[in-house]
From TrEMBL:
Superkingdom per UniProt: Bacteria
Pfam family, one: DUF2971
Official protein name in the record: DUF2971 domain-containing protein
UniProt xrefs under InterPro entries: DUF2971
Length: 299
């Protein structure tokens, strides 16, 4: 399918997403605190050195194959879409899209996960071995940043199959409408399809994962200049750094947008809390409420 080219069609589909698919950004910014579950090692990196969250490219994430679940929904709803020449082209092109393992390499999408749940037993299990914590982020200021990206989307992940079908059908009909009115060539149609369902796939997950209560933040950079690499298990993993601070022009300081830290369930909780309290004092990190999980889990 080739690299995605941002043109009028992809831009219109992006606008359609913002208006009809994802949660309204203003609602998220003025809504509840959002939490990012991570390890204590990563927390130290965020607080002390980087003051940034490392956002990994989706095809290098542990659960990236979950993103292909959208293909199952497309297969279920396409039969209900009115027949047309554009539908025939769509079906032909989508077979190529769905069978290509590496299509996310062409999209260059980076993503990280958030949730409204500050004490999720399911998510603590993902960060076992006495390592889990989460950070509560000021969404209004965080998402109010000017991200240096082609596209930035924030939305609640959709788990209900009924809602998934309704959204996917609406998106297909919009794409076919654009293809017909703009008389898209097969190449441009292919590009629009790749962008549309590659992006949408980040926000549609199997109902079995509903207990994660996930929000997704996805980011498509303007260029490769902002991409960094870390080495994990012998592999180079691409990521971008997204600031989790606001810059105070008067003092020149970087003020963290982290409002809470919750320590996950573990043994020796007292010494962990005591150490983190002292850490925050020494680093002069004020305005962060420290909590401990109430989940009845012990390692």
């Amino acid at each position: 399918m080739g690299k995605v080219i941002i043109d009028e069609t992809t831009q219109e589909m992006a606008n359609f997403f913002l208006e009809h698919v994802f949660d309204n950004l203003s609602k998220i910014m003025n809504g509840p605190m959002l939490y990012h579950y991570t390890s204590m090692e990563a927390l130290n990196n965020i607080l002390d050195r980087e003051k940034c969250i490392w956002v990994t490219r989706v095809d290098f994430m542990n659960d990236y194959k979950e993103i292909s679940y959208v293909n199952e929904i497309v297969q279920k709803v396409i039969v209900d879409v009115e027949d047309s020449k554009e539908k025939e082209t769509f079906i032909s092109l989508y077979k190529d899209f769905a069978s290509t393992e590496g299509y996310y390499k062409d999209l260059n999408i980076f993503a990280f996960s958030l949730t409204e749940n500050p004490d999720s037993l399911v998510l603590w299990n993902n960060y076992g071995m006495n390592e889990g914590c989460n950070i509560g982020i000021d969404g209004k200021k965080f998402f109010g940043q000017s991200f240096n990206s082609q596209f930035t989307f924030v939305g609640r992940v959709i788990y209900s199959e009924e809602k998934q079908k309704a959204i996917v059908k609406k998106v297909i009909e919009k794409l076919l409408h654009l293809a017909r009115d703009s008389q898209l060539s097969e190449e441009r149609f292919s590009q629009a399809l790749l962008f549309t369902f590659g992006t949408l796939g980040c926000f549609i997950k199997h109902p079995a994962f509903a207990s994660e209560e996930e929000y997704r933040f996805i980011y498509i950079p303007k260029s490769n200049e902002s991409i960094h690499f870390r080495v994990s298990r012998g592999a180079f993993i691409p990521f971008i750094k997204v600031p989790v601070y606001e810059y105070d022009e008067q003092s020149g300081e970087k003020r963290l947008l982290i409002r809470e830290i919750t320590i996950g369930p573990r043994t020796k909780l007292d010494i962990v809390r005591s150490g983190l309290e002292f850490y925050l004092t020494v680093k002069k990190l004020e305005g962060i409420e420290l909590r401990t999980s109430n989940a009845p889990l012990r390692f």
